[in-house]
Structures
1.
Amino acid sequence: MKIGLLRNNPCYNGNYNHTINSLGLNTGNLAFWSALETIFNPERVEYKDVHPDLNERIDKLIITDLIWLREKTDVPYMQKLLETYKGAIVPMSVGLQCGSFKNDFVLSNQTVSILKQIEERSIIGVRGLYTADILNKHGIKNIMVIGCPSMYQGIDPDKLTMRKSVTDRTPFVSNFKTFYSPLTEKEKHFLSYCADRKSFFVEQTNKPFTEEQANDKNYFIYITKWLNDNSHIFYNIEDWKSNTERYSFCMGARFHGNVVSLKNGTPSLFLTCDSRTKELTDFFGLPTLELNSFDKTKSLEYYYELADYTAFKKKYSINVDTFLDFLKRNDILRYVLLK
């Protein structure tokens, strides 16, 4: 019997949208999945392969499907999984998707039912204190706050506290949230700041930047040219790391985009714009700046100095111990390959 990880195999058939779909509509999942695969070496279980015979092969099944719980929204395929697979399902980094820390966030009755069924089989690993509080309010108690497993593999806190010399013209890596709504003034400032310095931009989704989002034709033309010349998307974690390892700094609103740079020993400044990112950065003590506080007149050196990893380093060993305790309580520590 083995431990399993529920995820699709990425499809590299030349079809851009098909490939993104196979990666869960966001290449940031690669950081999450690759960490779990390095930690456990699990059998990869595709969604199409969820059949009763899974019970004969898989002792425990790790899932990452509940990291984007939206208010009053169902996750029907999870009920099918629970009915088909009778073993322990261990969710990692369960979290809410919310623009702010909404105290009266309402989970759908079906989602509550699914989580209560899961907690009868295992301890649920949740992203942060906010998610834990909301789940408790819905009667879901068998939980532990663990952050994100992507932070427990391939990161050396000591490297992140070693300061380098950075000037305003130092090449750096940037990322941004999904292009899906009109940009705020501060968001425009951040993108033009990156464009002015021709930063190496990492995209994670297939949502295009549009003129409607820019609401300014000249701005749209300027940012589009920069994106066309400097935007990159990666379909495996090693390519992502190798193409960004030469940079001394990373800055952006993508949690996993920044985490990949951390795995290269590169300090990242996390620009927070929703509860998800803030919840994770608070838990790990990561350096943050609210995206709405971004100041385009500040130098790159200024933002580099904000990426102070002293607090992170102090908390990291405690967080690792918490994660290992979570694995032990779920009886999956025995599968861990990393010692």
Note: The longest helix spans residues 310-329.
2.
Amino acid sequence: DEYWIVEVAIPLANFADVMRHNPPQPGDEWRLNFNRHGGDTNAQYSQWSRGDTPKPAFHTPHRFGTVVFSDRRSPF
């Protein structure tokens, strides 16, 4: 319960115009959020960084978390 690791495929070409480095370098920071929404039998809504809207809304960038890129390898 100390941390969690996620592996994500990001299409870097889509963000080339706004990226400081392509690919990101250790120490680069991005503001982003991870979301899940839906489910037919068990509807769920959750976000890594909580939104501040009364109804579920993922477009609250002022609430996004900060991801710091690293060159450290996962211990897993």
Note: The mean pLDDT is 84.
